[in-house]
C-alpha cells in the first residue's frame, strides 16, 4: 500500500470500532457525530493533499523497501534537501489547518521515524525489541498509518498489591505478551487513528524492573482499551460561526487500559528506564520533533499576522502608531522563527544513524520562545479587535429578516457587514473562544514545564567558544596594559 487517500482514511475510521466515550455515552460511529466529523474530514483532506500530482514530488518519496510512493513525513532525512522536503510537507499541511492541528499526521510520523531509525539501541535489553520497533516503523510508513500517542501518567501509584492500578502498569507477563492495567493521560485524537503509540517512563531507575516503564503500539480497537473524551470545544453549526473548531478541533482523551494484552511483537521495551532514556537521547527524537513543530509554528504565526493585518485594514487602524507597533511585534516574531528554522537546517549534520540532523541550538531557542510568543500574539489580537470582537452575529442572524440591516449597519469602508463579521468571528474563535484558549494552553505547555525547559536550555547550550573568546580578549587586554 502506498500513501493513502482521504477516502481510505475515512474508510478506516468507519471500519474501526474503538471504545470511545463522549458525554457519558459510547460513540459507535465517530464519523456520524458532529463532534468528530469535522476533524476526520480535515484529516482526510490532508491525505488528499499529499496525493495531488503537483505536490507528490515533495510530499511523497519512493519507499526504500517497497519502491512505492510513501509519505515524506516518514522519510529519514539523509541530506539537507531531504530536510527541506520534510519542512515543505509540514508547511503544506500546516497551511490547510492554519497551524491549529498539533497532531496532524506529520507529527507522529516524525516521531516514529526518529525512534525507528535508532531502534538498535533497544538491543541492549533484547535484540527482538529493536527488530520490533524497526519493523513497526516500516509498517507505519508502508501503510501510511495515522497514529495517536500517550505518555503522561497520573502521579499517584497503588498503595498495596490488592488495590487496582491507577497509573498504567504491567500487571502480568505471559507467553502471549504484557498485560497493562490502569490509565494514561492523555491522547490527542485518541480513538480516531489506526493505532496508538504508548510510551511510559517513570524514570524509577532504582528499580530492577519498573512495571510503569514500557513502550508499545496497538490498534485503537484493541480489547480492553478505551478512550474517555473531554468536553467538546466545537459547537457545531457552520464554518462561518466556528471557522476553526468546526474543522480542526482535536479531541483529547484519557486512555484507560482494562487488562489490555499487548502481543510481544508489538513490545519495544519494558521495565528498564535506562534503556528508554538512552533511546530518547541517542535517537535525537526531540531534535526531529522540534524541527517539525517549528515548521508548523511558522505557518501558524503567518496566519495570525494575516488576521491582524486584515483587522487593521478593515477598521482603518493602520495610521495609529500603537497598532503599527503591535503588528510590527508579530512581524519581528515571524522573521525570528523563520531565521531559527532555516539556521537549524543550514547547520545540520549527519548523526550516527545516517540522519541529517538539524542543529539543535536554534531549535532550543525557538522551543523556549514560542510558548511566550503565542499568548502575546493572542493578547495583541484582543487589543486590536477590542469591542468589535463582541459584535459578531451568527450566520443564522444574517439569514433572518434583520440580516439585510446588519449587512448595512456593520459595514466598514471596505467590507460589508457580513464579510466584516466573518473576519471577526475568526479572530474571536482564535483569541477568545474555548477552542482558542485550548490552543494557548497547548502552546504554553507543549514541550513541558517552561522552567524545566529553560533549565535544559541553560545546561545543554554549548557556550564554550563564547567563553574562550572572552578569556582570550581579556588576556590580550592584560598583555597590552
Description of the molecule:
With 481 residues, the chain is α+β, with helices and mostly antiparallel strands. The chain folds into 2 domains: 6-279, Butyryl-CoA Dehydrogenase, subunit A, domain 2, CATH 2.40.110; 284-442, Butyryl-CoA Dehydrogenase, subunit A, domain 3, CATH 1.20.140.10. It is built from 17 helices and 14 strands. The strands form 4 sheets. A 6-stranded mixed sheet has the order 2-1-10-11-7-6, with no helix packed on it. Helix 5 runs antiparallel to helix 6, helix 9 packs antiparallel against helix 14 (417-431) and helix 11 (360-385) runs antiparallel to helix 15 (434-445). The longest helix has 30 residues, at 285-314. The chain is globular, with a radius of gyration of 24 Å. The protein starts with 5 loop residues before the first helix and ends with a helix. The relative contact order is 0.10.
Question: Keywords, please?
Answer:
481 residues, alpha+beta, Butyryl-CoA Dehydrogenase, subunit A, domain 3, four-stranded mixed beta sheet, 17 helices, 51% helix
Short recap of the structure:
By secondary structure, this protein is α+β, with helices and mostly antiparallel strands. It is 51% helix and 16% strand.
What is the strand content?
A: 15-25%
Structural class: alpha+beta
Number of strands: 14
Percent helix range: 40-55%
The shape, in one word, is: globular
Overall mean pLDDT stands at 93
The major beta sheet can be summarized as: 6 strands, mixed
Widest sheet, order of strands: 2-1-10-11-7-6
What is the fold named in CATH at topology level of the largest domain? Butyryl-CoA Dehydrogenase, subunit A, domain 2
Instruction: Please indicate the count of domains.
Output: 2
Helix tally? 17
Q: Class of the largest domain, according to the CATH hierarchy?
A: Mainly Beta
Determine Rg (CA atoms, Å). Answer: 24 Å
What's the CATH architecture of the largest domain? Beta Barrel
The CA-CA distance between the termini, in Å, is 74 Å
Low-pLDDT parts are none
CATH homologous superfamily of the largest domain, by name? Butyryl-CoA Dehydrogenase, subunit A, domain 2
